[in-house]
């Protein structure tokens, strides 16, 4: 099995042993969707499942819906993505 990569870390190799693994941590200011928080028609405090960190260090959090909607633009801007949307519908 060769390197597979993923959205958060394109060079991730699942065959590495624990001593070779690199842990990635993304600190975020909010755990709610910024797009929903700015929409008065949306329910209050919608949980974020997709996190983006721009090269400047600024982070943004999105619900699964808005995260997928904006994914291409986030990647175009060079943002690192942590996508936990698979947890949204348990």
Give the helices and strands, then pairings:
Elements: H1 34-37, E1 50-53, E2 59-62, H2 64-76, E3 80-83
Keywords:
90 residues, alpha+beta, 3-stranded antiparallel β-sheet, disordered N terminus
If helices are DSSP runs of H or I spanning 4 or more residues, what is the number of helices?
Answer: 2
Kindly state the percentage of residues in helix.
10-25%
Sheet with most strands? 3 strands, antiparallel
Mean pLDDT: 77
What does this structure look like?
This protein is of the alpha+beta class and 90 residues long. It has two helices and three strands. It has helices spanning 34-37, 64-76; strands spanning 50-53, 59-62, 80-83. The protein has a three-stranded antiparallel β-sheet. The chain is globular. Mean pLDDT is 77; it is low at 1-6.
Short description, anyone?
The protein is of the alpha+beta class and 90 residues long. 19% of the residues lie in helices and 13% in strands.
């Amino acid at each position: 099995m060769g390197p597979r990569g993923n959205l958060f870390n394109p060079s991730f190799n699942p065959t590495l042993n624990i001593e070779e693994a690199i842990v990635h941590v993304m600190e975020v200011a909010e755990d709610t969707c910024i797009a929903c928080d700015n929409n008065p028609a949306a329910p209050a405090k919608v949980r974020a499942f997709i996190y983006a960190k721009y090269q400047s260090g600024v982070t943004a959090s999105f619900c699964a819906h808005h995260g997928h909607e904006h994914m291409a633009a986030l990647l175009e801007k060079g943002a690192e993505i942590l996508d936990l949307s698979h947890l949204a519908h348990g």
